[in-house]
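Reviewers asked in the last cycle whether our approach scales beyond single polypeptides. To address this, we selected a multi-component target totalling 733 residues and predicted its structure end to end. The input consisted of the following lines:
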Amino acid sequence: MDGDDRDIPPIPASPAEAHAPRVGVDEWVASVAERREGYSGVLGRARSELERVPRPVFYAAFGVAAALLPAITSDGYIVRVGFDTLLYMLLALGLNITVGYAGLLDLGYVAFYGFGAYGYAMLASPKFGIHWNTLAIVPVVVIATAILGLLVALPSRRLLGDYLAIVTLFFGQLFVAVYTNGERMSLFGLTRSHDVTGGPNGIPNVDNFNVFGGRIGSLQAYYYVALGVFLLVLLVVFLIDTSRTGRAWKSLREDPLAAELMGMPVNRLKLIAFAAGAAVAGLAGTLFAALNTAVFASDFDVPTLIIIYAILILGGAGSIGGVILGALVVNISLEVLRTPGHATWVFYVTILATLLMALRPWRVLALVLGGTVAFGYAAHAIVAAAWPRGVHGSPSVGGWFGSGLSGWELHPSNPRLIGNITFIALVLAVLALTLLSGWKRWAAMIPTLYLAGFVWENRLVVEPSITRLILVGVILIVLMNARPQGLLGTARVEIV
Amino acid sequence: MTDEPLLSLESVDTYYGPIHILQGLNLNVRAGELVCLLGGNASGKSTTLKTVLGLVNPRNGTVRFGGEDVTKRSTSYRIRQGMAIVPENRRLFAPMTVLENLQMGAYLHAGGTKEDFDRVYELFPLLHERRAQLAGTLSGGEQQMVAMGRALMAKPKLLLMDEPSMGLAPILVERSFEIIKQVHESGVAMLIVEQNANVSLSIADRGYVLSTGRLVLEGKADDLREDEGLRKAYLGR
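The resulting structure, written as structure tokens, was:
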């Protein structure tokens, strides 16, 4: 190669000036702007209009809609679910700082939630005879939780990815172990034992929020307090998100080395993100303790952590709107699934929707669906003739759907044993499906789907507390396959 | 040019664990100078840059920047003193926009003033055009410009470049070095680490040649271009 005077074309100032292949201009990228106009029809126009609306407008709209909920319904159950949903939104918002922005996989997050709840309970209950004003407790608890977050993060700040996850998971478990066994604590065995956390009995009779003598007692009032707190934290997080620190967190998440090369104080940024997330969790803890008027360590264990993570991941880590949407989807579906009838509807609709998305061309779809229905009625007829006990039970839903199901699905009078066996058979059948291809897979899908229906009706639906978690898990898997970045998350762009 | 070099490495020994990488390296860059550091694979070029930046610490020797001994100082301190780097493979923040990438470059200057942006946009009009686009969706050549723009946002006294030609088509390499020359002419001292000896020597004032962690050649760029040994080893003529 020689340093000859080749004619190098100048970089055009704008794509409009250019013709033919250009140096430094990616044709594909240049054409994306044109493709983006490709939304057509009413939906398309609505979509491009919605994209133009600034994000705070959506948050405000959510705030107004949420504020109307107690006005629309006086049903205590619904308001209670609303409160829990807001609480989970708040928790997910805090986790969004640590995981979504800074990319620190904090698996001990619930411990900060529990620390906040216990902190409130200790300062406002007959436990130690302390009854502080709420306006004094909340800042103390939030700051204490933030400091705890700093202490956890301090030795872990050099740890990356998986290692940080292990350390924080350990911390979370340590929290649960200490608080469930904290009824006889002494300082290294040197002092007399004291009951600090109430052990497995937790701390009962916690005071309600109490501001200058005014007690906040009603569920409605707590709902509004939770909404106000959530919107306030949302505003703060939104401002941070668009600030220099927010951008620094995101760049740290994307490429810690490059962030360091830009002169960012990487360690300090990590510590701040960790402490900020912890502080929000602590704040959520005080709300939890005040409404429930009791705290137990088991409320702050792994299942709660999983729900918070499910919300964050489903909504899209790093997205504030995703936190709201994720909490709505996860919490409401968990509630709906409590009732077996509702759960059955969700189960069949999920399966149908998955098939609609996954099966192409439509002829295969029709064949599999029709085949499954026919298979069911045939099986039902044969079993009814040969072994009447096999169709003795009744389906979990009523109405036309239920009567349709009772002619299709087998319902043995005592399904426990056969339910367990078929559950294992179902798992094996699903595994076998992944090994098959082509028409064999479509053919095998028919009995597998029927088996799934059978297992649902006879084994899963009778234990809703476990089943709803399984079903939410399945819904998550399906959604994450369709949108790996979460409902509102931005798709990852990789530089290769 | 002042007598005191802007950057100097004085008999630096750098180790990775038990392995002795840089062996008594002496190197300096004066203010406003463009110096290139050449060498084949595993010759210690990147380690030299890491030592300059403080990503690894030398066991012996001194790193001076702007007359100050920065051997024990952190990376972020050195960058605050006026170093900036265009890292190997550019390392842009892919899901962030071009504008945000530039703001990150000026992190230590509160995200950059309008003058900083104007200066960078004047050098790279394309970045202004593409400021709202995600950096990860740019082509290789465009990404190179973002990486340089990002580094220049910090108003560096010394710009370090690690393999700016890597992954670019030959014609883009030449274009890229034209831009490097332009940046240099605006008064920024540069240390360029390169495998492509010919094109880097064509714009450099001076050059160093490393081989397995030792300096084997140094001198004016024009002299190096005529050097028989270097020709054989790197220029392939």
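Residues 266-292 of chain A form the longest helix (27 residues). We regard this as preliminary and will revisit it once experimental data from Aim 1 are available.
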